[in-house]
Write a structure and sequence with these properties.
148 residues; alpha+beta; 40% helix; elongated
Length: 148
């Protein structure tokens, strides 16, 4: 496959309203279930704390990208393959693994680094420019034979 003439694809995802709403919905739903189930008070408190910690973790990692394990920027080029820039200011070479998910509204890129680290980059459609999201989806389908 040849890369489009524009050169490497650089991805710097922005804030996604849809991902934020999804995180709020999932964690709020979990809190409602915890409150409605007849658990002892201490277990309720522990579970509510776990849900709150989970919400903060994913909000920082996937939306604000402030965590050291956050993928801040990704670049794909035919010669260099995938390169990741992480929240701790490090750059790592990576390969796309088959568990990645492509859809018109969401790309979930699973990347494995040379030191066997694994990173998942969630790219909702509203986190990138529409043309870039479409171009990336097309390149991934051609390169990795993803189905629709």
């Amino acid at each position: 496959m040849t890369i489009p003439k524009d050169g490497p694809i650089r991805i710097e995802p922005g804030f996604s309203k849809w991902l934020a709403l999804y995180l709020l919905f999932v964690h709020t739903s979990a809190l409602v279930v915890i409150v409605l189930l007849p658990f002892p008070l201490l277990l309720d408190i522990a579970l509510v704390l776990l849900v709150a910690i989970s919400f903060c973790y994913y909000w920082r990692r996937d939306l604000l990208r402030l965590s050291a394990h956050s993928v801040i920027r990704v670049e794909w080029g035919e010669e260099n393959g995938w390169r990741l820039w992480l929240g701790d200011d490090s750059m790592q070479n990576a390969t796309l693994i088959p568990s990645s998910f492509l859809h018109r509204y969401l790309l979930a890129l699973d990347l494995k680094t040379e030191d066997s680290g694994r990173y998942r980059l969630l790219l909702p459609q509203d986190s990138l420019q529409t043309g870039l999201h479409r171009r990336l989806r097309m390149v991934l389908k051609l390169e990795n034979h993803f189905g629709e």
